Protein backbone atom coordinates (compact mmCIF):
# COMPACT_ATOMS: atom_id res chain seq x y z
CA UNK A 1 0.00 0.00 0.00
CA UNK A 2 1.41 3.38 -0.94
CA UNK A 3 1.71 6.23 1.53
CA UNK A 4 -1.10 8.30 -0.07
CA UNK A 5 -3.44 5.28 0.08
CA UNK A 6 -2.52 4.64 3.71
CA UNK A 7 -3.15 8.27 4.63
CA UNK A 8 -6.50 8.26 2.85
CA UNK A 9 -7.63 5.10 4.65
CA UNK A 10 -6.45 6.50 7.98
CA UNK A 11 -8.30 9.76 7.29
CA UNK A 12 -11.52 7.84 6.56
CA UNK A 13 -11.20 6.01 9.90
CA UNK A 14 -10.49 9.22 11.83
CA UNK A 15 -13.45 11.00 10.21
CA UNK A 16 -15.69 8.05 11.14
CA UNK A 17 -14.47 8.23 14.74
CA UNK A 18 -15.10 11.99 14.79
CA UNK A 19 -18.66 11.44 13.56
CA UNK A 20 -19.26 8.77 16.20
CA UNK A 21 -17.84 11.03 18.90
CA UNK A 22 -20.08 13.90 17.76
CA UNK A 23 -23.07 11.57 18.01
CA UNK A 24 -22.10 10.66 21.59
CA UNK A 25 -20.89 7.18 20.72
CA UNK A 26 -17.40 5.84 21.42
CA UNK A 27 -14.91 5.48 18.56
CA UNK A 28 -14.44 2.00 17.16
CA UNK A 29 -13.00 -0.43 19.67
CA UNK A 30 -13.25 1.94 22.64
CA UNK A 31 -15.45 2.00 25.69
CA UNK A 32 -18.00 4.76 26.27
CA UNK A 33 -16.33 7.69 28.05
CA UNK A 34 -18.51 9.16 30.78
CA UNK A 35 -16.11 11.92 31.84
CA UNK A 36 -16.93 14.96 29.65
CA UNK A 37 -13.37 16.32 29.98
CA UNK A 38 -11.89 13.04 28.79
CA UNK A 39 -14.38 12.88 25.93
CA UNK A 40 -13.41 16.41 24.85
CA UNK A 41 -9.71 15.54 25.08
CA UNK A 42 -10.28 12.50 22.85
CA UNK A 43 -12.21 14.65 20.38
CA UNK A 44 -9.38 17.21 20.35
CA UNK A 45 -6.87 14.42 19.70
CA UNK A 46 -8.96 13.14 16.79
CA UNK A 47 -9.29 16.64 15.31
CA UNK A 48 -5.54 17.15 15.65
CA UNK A 49 -4.82 13.82 13.96
CA UNK A 50 -7.29 14.68 11.20
CA UNK A 51 -5.53 18.01 10.61
CA UNK A 52 -2.12 16.33 10.49
CA UNK A 53 -3.36 13.79 7.95
CA UNK A 54 -4.80 16.55 5.77
CA UNK A 55 -1.48 18.43 5.90
CA UNK A 56 0.43 15.31 4.87
CA UNK A 57 -2.03 14.59 2.07
CA UNK A 58 -1.62 18.14 0.76
CA UNK A 59 2.19 17.91 0.80
CA UNK A 60 3.82 17.02 -2.50
CA UNK A 61 5.16 13.48 -2.67
CA UNK A 62 8.52 12.88 -4.27
CA UNK A 63 8.19 11.07 -7.57
CA UNK A 64 10.15 7.85 -7.87
CA UNK A 65 11.01 6.84 -11.41
CA UNK A 66 11.80 3.16 -11.90
Automatic annotation (TrEMBL):
<protein>
    <submittedName>
        <fullName>Uncharacterized protein</fullName>
    </submittedName>
</protein>
Amino acid sequence: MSEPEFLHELDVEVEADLELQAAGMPPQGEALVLDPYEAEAEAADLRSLHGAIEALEAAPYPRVDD
